[in-house]
Amino acid sequence: MSKAEKTRQFIIETTAPIFNKKGYAGTSLNDITEATGLTKGSIYGNFGNKDEVALAAFDYNYGTLSSAVKRKMEDKEHPIDKLRVFLDVFSDLQHVTSLQYGCPILNTAIEADDTHDALRRKAANAIDNWYKTIGGIINAGQDSGQIRLGVDAKEFAGAYIALIEGGVMLAKVTGKNDGLNAAVKQGLKMLKEITP
């Protein structure tokens, strides 16, 4: 990487947790310069504006989350075990450094739904990808006889995503894991119900 590319990557990696914690509106240019130790000129020499930093930070946070899920899925063969990875990763977000402030998809979707269309689209695309991943696992599991036929992959994915994100939201707002633990317990029941 060139020096400019390294600086740009440094800015993204350093500010990604800040954007995930404070959101787009809550993160100021001063937050960015303070965290990076760079001047405003250096920030704007690498990004046209705060929007560009925020969009890159979302991509980084989402990429970190996706990588954590993929890594844990790599050694799983059974589709139920693959689906369970989502419960495992999301119930342990605080141990993924850039995700310690919650799910970037949830955080961005809540803040940007009516205020920042580009961020909203990124969150919506992430949710679409999540639907596709779960749907692909369910369809493959049905083909192999490891998931019950008749399970509607899209309906299951919607309920599963909503359950997980709801649990994460409860944990984040209350500071307690009761709601998240209940969501994981219900998620495990959902997985049992689709097993033949």
TrEMBL record:
Q: Which Gene Ontology molecular-function terms are recorded? A: DNA binding
Q: List residues annotated as DNA-binding.
A: 28-47
Q: What Pfam families does this protein's entry cite?
A: TetR_C_13, TetR_N
Q: Which SUPFAM superfamilies match?
A: Homeodomain-like (SSF46689), Tetracyclin repressor-like, C-terminal domain (SSF48498)
Highest taxon listed in the record's lineage: Bacteria
State the Gene3D superfamilies in the record.
Answer: Tetracycline Repressor, domain 2
Which stretches make up the HTH tetR-type domain?
A: 5-65
**Which keywords annotate this record?**
DNA-binding, Transcription, Transcription regulation
Cite the PANTHER family for this sequence.
Answer: HTH-TYPE TRANSCRIPTIONAL REGULATOR LMRA, TRANSCRIPTIONAL REGULATORY PROTEIN
Official protein name in the record: Transcriptional regulator
Name its species.
Flavobacterium subsaxonicum WB 4.1-42 = DSM 21790
